[in-house]
Write a structure and sequence with these properties.
It is built from one helix and 25 strands. By secondary structure, it is mainly beta. The chain has two domains: about 130 residues, Sandwich (Jelly Rolls), CATH 2.60.120.10; about 140 residues, Jelly Rolls (Sandwich). The protein is globular and about 55 Å long. This is Pirin. Belongs to the pirin family.
């Protein structure tokens, strides 16, 4: 829907997969209220009646996705773009074809450059055997420019304690809690650097990823973007709604807004959550087929041929859906042997 409002350029209803604008390719919000875990870190609940291997039903408040025992996404390939996994609640176990592994959650982010090709698994182990295992995350795909589509695969961890989190007050003292996954909202508090070949790593692309929780009847103002070509999209979810200028954007809708001027979001009820994705478009042809995103159809065909021939390094794990056991710790073991580790997962 095209609007005449001065600030809101377009609104669209959100499906299960949220529509995005260049340089972003894909965004999905997973929000699952899993029950307590069993001895294999799967749900302690019957799985009968679910279409295991392709369960996106949301039955009883949760899905298994492609998992058969543990929820999640067993091994699958990517080429030509990046995945950003922002774990707001619960945990993700990463394993990949380079032999790297990670467990992260509770506000951590993994930013992975698929580049020339990688196979990875993303599983959601249910580590609490006594209580529910609420799991909430955003999975965001951001494109790579043609010059970087075939770089070496790589991932970087953005741990919760490193990510800027701001409490911003409106004129009446009502708070908005903002988490800055990419970019900068407050001077001197820039998000941790993305991987080196990311579009977001370039100084003139103005990539920003912000999560904002606006208090009831509170207001939050986004300042002007740093680049004149920046495209800024606001995703309103979790049932709230906001007023932007003369337009009300209700939960389950996205709004593309002007980025060259300040934009104020005012909650209209009991509080609102908003995800902001912004950036300067790459402006190149996009050809996507399944897990591969390139610039031409011939490159997609080559990606499939390369995967069938090399399996992007093979799969060094004994299972398609590995998890990292019951030890409550966050860690990352990179392909070069470097290890990051935190003894407590909370």
């Amino acid at each position: 829907m095209i609007l005449s409002d001065d600030l809101v350029l377009q609104t669209v209803a959100l499906d299960r997969v949220w529509q995005t604008v260049d340089p972003f390719l894909f965004c999905v919000h997973h929000d699952d209220d899993y029950p307590e875990g069993d001895d294999e870190f799967g749900p302690c609940a019957p799985l009968t009646g679910r279409n295991l291997g392709m369960d996106f039903s949301g039955r009883d408040g949760w899905s298994m996705y492609h998992g058969m025992q543990v929820p999640g996404f067993p091994q699958h390939p990517h080429r030509g773009f990046e995945t950003i996994s922002f774990m707001r609640k619960g945990y993700m176990d990463h394993a990949d074809s380079l032999g790297a592994a990670a467990r992260f959650g509770r506000g951590d982010v993994q930013w992975m450059t698929a580049g020339s090709g990688i196979v990875h698994a993303e599983m959601f182990p249910l580590l609490d055997k006594q209580a529910s295992n609420e799991t909430e995350l955003f999975q965001i795909w951001i494109n790579l420019p043609s010059t970087d589509k075939m770089v070496e695969p790589h991932f970087r961890m953005l741990w919760n304690h490193e990510i800027p989190q701001h409490t911003l007050l409106d004129a009446a003292g009502r708070p908005t809690e903002v988490t800055v996954v990419a970019g900068q909202l407050v001077a001197g508090h820039r998000a941790p650097a993305p991987p080196p070949h990311s579009w977001a790593s370039r100084p003139d692309t103005d990539v920003g990823i912000y999560h904002a929780a606006i208090s009831p009847e509170g207001s939050w103002t986004l300042g002007p973007a740093a680049h004149p070509r920046t495209v800024r999209t606001l995703y309103v979810f979790a049932g709230g709604s906001v007023r932007i200028g003369g337009t009300e954007v209700t939960g389950g809708h996205a709004a593309v807004v002007r980025s060259e001027v300040p934009v104020t979001l005012t909650d209209t009820g009991d509080g609102t959550e908003v995800l902001v994705l912004q950036g300067r478009p790459i402006g190149e042809p996009v050809v996507q087929y399944g897990p591969f995103v390139m610039n031409t159809k011939a490159q997609i065909q080559q990606a499939y041929a390369d995967y069938q021939q090399t399996w992007f390094g093979g799969w060094p794990w004994p299972d398609d859906d590995p998890n990292h056991g019951g030890d409550l710790r966050r860690f990352a073991r990179h392909a070069d042997g470097r290890v990051e580790e935190y003894a407590v997962a909370g």
